[in-house]
Structures are given as structure tokens and as C-alpha cells.
Isochorismate synthase MenF
Amino acid sequence: MNSVVTALSELQQKLIAPLPDSSGTLVFTVPLTLSDDSDALQWLAAQSVWPQFYWQQRNGEQELAALGAVAHFPSLSAGEAFLAQFPASERLLICGLNQFDPASGSLFLPRLLWQRQRGQAALTLILHSEHSLAQDGLQAQALLAALLPARPLPALQLTLLREQQTPAWPRWQQLIEQALAGFSRGEMEKVVLARASDLWFSTPVSAAGFLAASRRVNLNCYHFYMAFNAQQGFIGSSPERLWRRRGVELRTEALAGTVASSADDAKAARLGEWLMHDDKNQRENMLVVEDICQRLNPIGETLEVLPPQIMRLRKVQHLRRCIWTTLRQPDDASCLRQLQPTAAVAGLPRQAASAFIQHNEPFERQWYAGSAGYISRQQAEFCVSLRSALVDGDRVRLYAGAGIVPGSDPAEEWREINNKAAGLRSLLTEKSE
């Protein structure tokens, strides 16, 4: 077994042999030894190569870090079409982000991929060229030679200069009144409205350092990080799975209905018990369940809906119902089209709710409420990109949303999005306020 340094050296040795001056794809994988200080995010953020992508499964069993792009894909369907050319390859993996509009994304086949599954880890180098593998091998050698060792990520020692919310409170009230009027006219059953909070700091913010701080405290979440360049990155710690596929077995979930959480176990339990029996929240969750089941019917076999659970997080608690099925064929592009955006992030009916969002929300969602994850021939998994933030130099844009249904109260929903945003906001501002 190898340390990262030894593994990289072994990969460099594999590139010494002559490579064909023709098109093709080659994959080299070497195992890694994990130690207590093995941190893929630290290793990734130490490099001056982009894009960078980090993703950790909610239960912590799976983790990947991708560095550099051999090929870029503007949508998941384009990435899936690429993988279809290599039906026998088990080691090709495409990772990245899908926008709120699932037709658009930023995904890539990585040059170098660090992967961990439970206690087993490996480092994979990918060569791919439409013209010359020999030339692509030279580029891979240059990247390997320039890699740096992992280093500790910077602490978030930030000074907040100003903050702006979009929409601000008066416009938020108006939006909910517009939504309630739409419900009364029978145009929608539910719409999810979001708020963007822009925070400016006196110094640039490290997107990787921000995620590392969130990863330490926001447990039971997917953690993801996409660095587009040295200044811009999108990060998040999301509680919600969009879908997981193993072969043709698919698991998804309805995560809708929210109440505050507490560090006090007894108080958190009382709040969770209230959530489990609250009519408004149960109704909101079942709307999402019914929508997911309808959308899976064309691509899945018998559906199994599990009993409701309480998902307890640091700042909030959610109602969750898991939904399992067997796909008729392993088609991840179809899964994305059918499931995103879910009623938990857009509303019902999907078309009417999405149109309301597009026409009335005063900002573009872009990556917010899209999805982050990976696809391969054998398996795929994406989380919904909630509890997320866009980092751009010294500015951070935080996102949070609330499901609006008949009977929703603007002040109560404002408190809900404050609670949701607090999971990340507190990490940026607790020393400033």
C-alpha cells in the first residue's frame, strides 16, 4: 500500500513507457494507505490546478477529490453519452454540478481522482485524447510534477463589512402574498421561495476552508466543493439526497417539513415530536412524496415508500420519507430529468411553480437547489445542493429557501430561512458579531 507521495511516484513511472501517438483512453489506478491525517480536501486545495471537486457522502463512507479536467461536459446527459462509449470501464467517473435547471451543468472527467470507499482508497490517473495519447501523457506528467503536499486549510478569521438580503423582508412578504393568491386561484399547490444573502468581508474567503469548517460541525450532511478557479467556488453541506443508483437499484427521498433544532437533546426531541404530528409540515412532505412517485413511475418498477423519520441537524430538523425502486434501465440522465427540481426545492405543479420562481424571485438560482455528485457506469449519486454558498473573492452569497403552502405565514417562513442559513452563516460571522 502507498502514501500519496508514493502513489504519485508510481503513477509517474507508468507514464515513462512510450504511449501511442493516436486517440484513446488509458486509466492507471494505484492503492492508497489511509492515515489519521489523510484529508483529501486539504490535498486538493493545496494545488494550483482547476477545476477542483470534492464530495463526501452523508454517512461518511464515500469520499472523492477530483483535480484537473481531461474533458468538460455542459450537462449530465453529455457526460453519460461519453461514458456509454466505454461500457467495459469500471474506473471512469464524471463529477461536478447540475444547475437548478437540470439541462445545464459543469461536470468533468478528472485528470487525477482520489477516492475512498469505507477504509479502502485509491488514486487514479486518466489519459484521454481525440488525437494523441502521447501528447496527453506529457500534459499529465507536467501536472504530476507540479503537485504539492497537503497543507492545513486556513481558519475562518473574517471581518464582516456589510450584508444584503435579496429579497429583503418587505419584498419577501409580497412574494408570499403573491404565492397565496396563486394558491387561491388554483394555479399552484406549493412553491419554494429562496433568499440570497450577500456578505462582504475585509479579506478573500477560502472556499475550501469554509467547507472544512462546515464539515466539522454540520454532521449527517453531504459536503461538496467545486472550485472553478482560484477566486470562485461553490460549496455546501446538504442534508438531502437527490438519488443514489447502484446498478439498477435507486434510492431517493422526500425531505420537506422543518422545525428548529437544539443542542439540548430533550428540547430537540420535543421539537421533532411536534414536527412529526404537525399537519402543515406533514402535508408539505406528502406533496413531495406523491410528486416523486409520479415522476419515477415511467422509469421505475414497484415503488416502496418508507415510514417518516426525523432528520436532526445542527440548526434545523426535517421530515424525511425514503423512496426506493428498481430502474428499468440504468439511465442517470433520465433520473435527473425526472427528479430535479423536486417539489421540495421548486413546488407543485413543477411547471407552474418553476415559472413563478423564474418570474418573481429577484436573483438567479444557478447552482443553488441543483445537485452535486458523480456518475459512472456502475453507480451514481447526487445530493441536492442546499445549505450552499457561492464564494467569489471577498464576497459570499448564502442561499436558503422555504416551502410555501396554503396557510404559510411570512414571518414564520422568514425565521425558517434564517435557521437554515445559520448552518453556514454562523461559521463566517461568529467572530465578527
